[in-house]
Amino acid sequence: MVRFQVLVSILVPLVLLLGISATTEGPWITIHDLNDPRVIDIAKFAVSELNKKISPGGLEFKSVDQGWSQLGRIGGFISHTNFKLDITTLRQDASVHKYEVIVLELTDARNFMSLSSYKELHV
C-alpha cells in the first residue's frame, strides 16, 4: 500500500504538470457545510494564489458562498479531490469581488493543493 501511495504522489503531480488526461472525474457534489474548517482553508489558499496571480496582496478572504467537491481517480483509486468554490473577497479599497475557483487537493497528501482555475463572477 505504501508503494502505491508513493507512486500516486509522484504520478498525479506529473500528470497535472504535463496536462495528461489520465484521470476520471466523478460528479460534482454540493458541499453543505461551507463553514467547515477544511473548506475555509481551501478557500483561503485560493485567495492567496489569486493574490500571487492577479492582485498582489490586494484580496482578503471574506466568505464561501457555494461549494462543490468532485473525486478524481487514477486507475480506479481515488487520487485527488477537486473543490469548486464561489468565494467573496474584499480588495484594499473595500470593494467586493466574487470568484469561482477550482482547487485540486491530493488525497494522500493534504498539504498539496493547486489552484486549477479561477474566474471573476460579475453579479
UniProtKB/TrEMBL annotation:
Domain Cystatin: 31-121
Keyword Signal (UniProt): yes
Molecular functions per Gene Ontology: cysteine-type endopeptidase inhibitor activity
Keywords assigned by UniProt, alphabetized: Protease inhibitor, Signal, Thiol protease inhibitor
InterPro entries assigned to the protein according to its UniProt record, in alphabetical order: Cystatin_dom, Cystatin_sf
KW Isomerase (keyword) present: no
Protein name in UniProt: Cystatin domain
Leader sequence segment: 1-22
Organism: Dillenia turbinata
PANTHER family: CYSTEINE PROTEINASE INHIBITOR 5
Listed Pfam families: SQAPI
